[in-house]
Amino acid sequence: MDVHSNYSDFFEGTEKLLEVWFCRTDGKDDNCDLRKISREQWESLLQEVKCVIISFKRSEHLDSYVLSESSMFVSKRCFILKTCGSTTLLNAVTPLLYIVKMTTGFNFVQDIFYSRKNFMRPELQNKPHTSFEDEIESLEGIFEDGAAYCMGRINSDCWYLYTLNTPLGLHGNPVADQTLEVIMQDLDQNVMSIFTQEGSSSARDATQKSGIDQIYPGAMLDEYLFDPCGYSVNGILKGRYYFTIHITPEPHCSYVSFETNAPQDNYHDLVNTLLKMFLPGKFVMTLFANKLSVAAKGMKESCNTEFHSYNRKELQVCRFNAYDLTYALFAKAPS
Amino acid sequence: MDVHSNYSDFFEGTEKLLEVWFCRTDGKDDNCDLRKISREQWESLLQEVKCVIISFKRSEHLDSYVLSESSMFVSKRCFILKTCGSTTLLNAVTPLLYIVKMTTGFNFVQDIFYSRKNFMRPELQNKPHTSFEDEIESLEGIFEDGAAYCMGRINSDCWYLYTLNTPLGLHGNPVADQTLEVIMQDLDQNVMSIFTQEGSSSARDATQKSGIDQIYPGAMLDEYLFDPCGYSVNGILKGRYYFTIHITPEPHCSYVSFETNAPQDNYHDLVNTLLKMFLPGKFVMTLFANKLSVAAKGMKESCNTEFHSYNRKELQVCRFNAYDLTYALFAKAPS
């Protein structure tokens, strides 16, 4: 796939991210599984988003898809779709609910989380992604009583979230859950050159040169190097845990995102590893953790902390019914 | 002043609130004072906002004005203007900066805080208050690098803030500072009937019947009962401290705001007193405290707390350069 057609073209690396949890209202979900959904069904759903599957790997608990624009993960109860560029992710929601109802045995949307950073060039997006207000309107056509937030500065770097804000444990046993996202911009161009066809001989070569293979040693990796540049990797960890990295290396719009749902009581060292690997000029970190998560206890240490040679510009904490969320923005200190 | 012309008319009680701190870049502000500004200068400034002064009182440290739409407070370095209805508060900013420069000896805006809750009927507002985006644009025409935030739900109850987010102690000695605001809606109609010409024989009568005179015993009060309904009170406390309450009693748009800059290490009991006095269906509380304030230590106890017969719907904490801010929304628990 030629999503990055030219070094000088603009590419919107900023992803739209959708996470949907399903359940049964009677709690009896033993025979329910989102992985009953067929490849053909996913392909038809992704047509609405304007992207395609380019690679697939699975473990006992998790199906992982690398897409022409970012990634998709499917486990028993949880669907995650992350797409960049000018894809129309929210067009997938109504077909998703229909396919899940017809195929999986689940009969209820337990919670959804739709989030993204502010776009670099919002005027290049397609409906309903033309503004967060338009995205809210689209979601309010599907869900009732959703809550929409803007973390950070409305008039600068910020991060939008729409969630149903469901109480913990509605319909069925609650499970520990956490998501860390690190969104890096203004990256080091020597590092970025690794993620081009000129800079690396293969996707695996880029993975090894950059050190991405050392972040979670033992992870099952599925990586892709785009032509002429751009890189994605899905990492399947034990259980239903994953990590994923997406890289837009072009100098005028460089963007790297890291995301994982792997539980840790403190993400400080992990984030530090990412910063040393990619050398961003600025980065946003967001951390969700529900009350059962080990990450909830260490939230303060993970986000309300110092990172060497970075200044914290923003810190916001938001308490939801089931989750605590921390948003922080850091920028390189003047040297 | 007949701002509440009829019980059945809609009135936007939701205030716009502006707080501006001034300083001298050389730190030598001994001879500087905002209270050098004359009554005539204030009156001309308020013409831009479309409101007028209806009463004035002063103490050694504070000048207090009751306005046709809400209140104004002036101390040595700090200017506070709060106006409701369809007033155009932000039109005062440019004239204010001019008058201060010409009259007071101050030569620098240390910080500004412009805030408001979401309007009940935004379509009735005049430019630049037609949306928060329009307000930001107006402020960005005057200030550089201001930060704009939305606390709470963008698509429901929320509270907007624009601030310069200045580091503590830039130009001159920093002073302890804190502001508590409690914005109450859907109020008890028996209580609200006190704040009408039918329900009380005078402004003082309304103050005493409601118990407002007992909130800060010993405060110098300046109260006003509008015709046919509506009530404002400014309370001058010791030092440069004040409290102010504004009441729109009409059943379909009832609104009561309380604000004070008086330092307390814990505002829980004060808020509880207000809740028992006014019996709101829902309320927002916001608390700013800088690092020198006693209120910073008790922030958690003030906001992240329970109030009898209310459920907390939202809690957000925001760390600025000089201030910590907590935003919380509470709603009456179903009985």
From TrEMBL, chains A, B:
Pfam families registered for this protein in UniProt: SAM_decarbox
A molecular function (GO) term: adenosylmethionine decarboxylase activity
Annotated EC: 4.1.1.50
Biological process terms in GO annotation: spermidine biosynthetic process; spermine biosynthetic process
Catalytic residues as annotated in Swiss-Prot or TrEMBL: S70, C84, S232, H246
Cofactor: record remark: Binds 1 pyruvoyl group covalently per subunit.
InterPro entries reported in the protein's UniProt record: AdoMetDC-like (IPR048283), S-AdoMet_decarboxylase_euk (IPR001985), S-AdoMet_deCO2ase_core (IPR016067), S-AdoMet_deCO2ase_CS (IPR018166)
Cofactors: pyruvate
Pathway annotation from the record: Amine and polyamine biosynthesis; S-adenosylmethioninamine biosynthesis; S-adenosylmethioninamine from S-adenosyl-L-methionine: step 1/1
UniProt: substrate binding residues: F11, E69, F226, E250
Site, Cleavage (non-hydrolytic): residue positions: E69, S70
Reaction equations catalysed: S-adenosyl-L-methionine + H(+) = S-adenosyl 3-(methylsulfanyl)propylamine + CO2
Modified residues (Pyruvic acid (Ser)): S70
Domain of life: Eukaryota
Keywords associated with the record: Autocatalytic cleavage, Decarboxylase, Lyase, Polyamine biosynthesis, Pyruvate, S-adenosyl-L-methionine, Schiff base, Spermidine biosynthesis, Zymogen
TM stretches of this protein: none
Classification via SUPFAM superfamilies: S-adenosylmethionine decarboxylase
Any GO CC annotation of this UniProt entry: cytosol
Gene3D superfamilies per record: S-adenosylmethionine decarboxylase
Family from the record: Belongs to the eukaryotic AdoMetDC family.
Name the UniProt record assigns to this protein: S-adenosylmethionine decarboxylase proenzyme
